[in-house]
């Protein structure tokens, strides 16, 4: 009997040591960039596994880092808005943009961050497809992991059990081993995240040159993808579903929360490249595109009046301006990189820096901020702004016949 007990003690002791060793290894490797700690070249600095669990990872990263300010929205925010830009005035900032996020997810992650730490500055990036009520949150979105309930109250049932799974699960062990094995940027596919939540734009640019055959091919591939699949992966588009739900309700709730908590909210309409804006037109969504902007302005005005405050600024960086019409390299120059764009759907940190310069009125030495990049939309200016974009679109199409051929599926 005593011998059996000794074996059991040894067995459970060894099991405990193994579990402890796994936990320590996963904590050191920190594959999802959840925990603070040293990032060592060749060991754990690169986080190739982050992308597969981005919604979980970013929720817990905010919980751990407790930023004073955040940027939220879709992958456009992930790629373009730099938490280290000096306009944030030295605050702890996290890029909480989430790939393919809709308006509901943007609201929920805003509420989550606000529940953890009262926020100072928030940059909210908006895209048309985020307001497609027919596109629901991604499968890896989870309500229980967020610190706030949908009504904004504190989630009393929020538990750290899921966070513990990043130390003790088989999946976490595999991710940690994968992190250790993949510390060469050349081996990391497509998307690589930095510890502040932003996508590493230099790495993405490298993969475009290596895997896509250069910017020219990447632009064609992205345009044809959206022409086939629609915006946000759906060719059907509606501002409301059959239950009466509308993403504009989530937008309104976010504005109300920001006013109520004295958040310095800056709203931006993403600066897609003109090629992408042409896709919106070719899919027959232009009337909805304009109506979307009108409704954003009206809701913003109404909520401001409700709180007796000026409405938040809505900055439109899209359309056809000196940044969004950047020349796409020809197929004869596959190694040529673009300054403002990675491909038509995602702008670079260079563009994001201009955005932050504009909305925070930051004067960056040696950086030229184009006068035509960024216009504030108000009830008084919206129709003139829409008419200007309409005219600019016609001029762009007339001088860029190649985009028409790509939209039709032809080779320019």
Task: Explain what this protein looks like in three dimensions.
With 412 residues, the protein is of the alpha/beta class. The chain has one domain (74-151, 193-407). The protein has 14 helices and eight strands. It has helices at 2-29, 54-65, 75-80, 103-116, 161-168, 170-181, 201-211, 215-229, 247-260, 274-282, 286-306, 349-359, 382-399, 401-407, and strands at residues 69-72, 93-95, 121-126, 264-269, 314-316, 341-343, 346-347, 375-376. The strands form two sheets. Strands 2-1-3-4-5-8 form a six-stranded mixed beta sheet. A two-stranded antiparallel sheet has the order 6-7. Helix 1 (2-29) crosses helix 6 (170-181), helix 4 (103-116) packs parallel to helix 9 (247-260) and helix 5 (161-168) packs across helix 6 (170-181). The model has no long low-confidence stretch (mean pLDDT 92).
């Amino acid at each position: 009997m005593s011998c059996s007990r000794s074996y059991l003690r040894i067995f459970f002791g060894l099991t405990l040591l193994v579990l402890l060793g796994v936990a320590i290894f996963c904590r050191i490797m920190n594959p999802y960039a959840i925990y603070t700690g040293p990032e060592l070249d060749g060991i754990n600095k690169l986080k190739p596994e982050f992308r597969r669990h981005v919604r979980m990872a970013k929720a817990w990263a905010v919980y751990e880092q407790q930023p004073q300010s955040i940027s939220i929205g879709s992958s456009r925010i992930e790629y373009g808005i730099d938490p280290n830009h000096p306009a944030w005035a030295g605050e702890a900032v996290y890029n909480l943009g989430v790939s393919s996020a809709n308006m509901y997810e943007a609201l929920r992650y805003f509420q989550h961050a606000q529940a953890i730490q009262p926020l100072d500055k928030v940059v909210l990036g908006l895209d048309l497809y985020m307001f497609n009520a027919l596109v629901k949150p991604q499968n890896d979105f989870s309500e229980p992991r967020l610190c706030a309930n949908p009504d904004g109250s504190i989630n009393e049932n929020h538990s750290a059990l899921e966070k513990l799974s990043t130390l003790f699960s088989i999946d976490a062990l595999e991710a940690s081993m994968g992190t250790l094995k993949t510390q060469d940027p050349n081996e990391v596919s497509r998307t690589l995240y930095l510890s502040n939540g932003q996508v590493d734009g230099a790495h993405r640019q490298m993969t475009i040159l290596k895997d896509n055959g250069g910017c020219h091919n990447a632009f064609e591939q992205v345009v044809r993808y959206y022409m086939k699949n629609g915006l946000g992966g759906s060719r059907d588009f509606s501002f409301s579903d059959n239950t009466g739900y509308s993403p504009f309700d989530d937008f309104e709730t976010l504005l109300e929360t920001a006013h109520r908590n004295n958040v310095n909210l800056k709203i931006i309409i993403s600066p897609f490249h003109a090629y992408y804006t042409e896709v919106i037109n070719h899919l027959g969504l232009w009337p909805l595109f304009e109506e979307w902007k009108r409704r954003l302005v009206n809701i913003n005005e109404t909520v401001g009046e409700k709180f007796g405050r000026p409405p938040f600024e809505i900055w439109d960086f899209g359309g056809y301006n000196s940044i969004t019409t950047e020349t796409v390299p020809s197929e004869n120059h596959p190694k040529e990189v673009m300054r403002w764009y990675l491909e038509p759907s995602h702008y670079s940190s260079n563009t994001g820096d201009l955005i932050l310069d504009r909305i925070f009125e930051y004067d960056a030495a040696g950086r030229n901020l184009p006068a035509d990049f960024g216009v504030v939309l108000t009830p008084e200016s919206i129709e003139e702004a829409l008419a200007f974009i309409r005219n600019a679109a016609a001029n762009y199409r007339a001088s860029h016949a190649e985009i028409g051929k790509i939209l039709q599926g032809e080779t320019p």
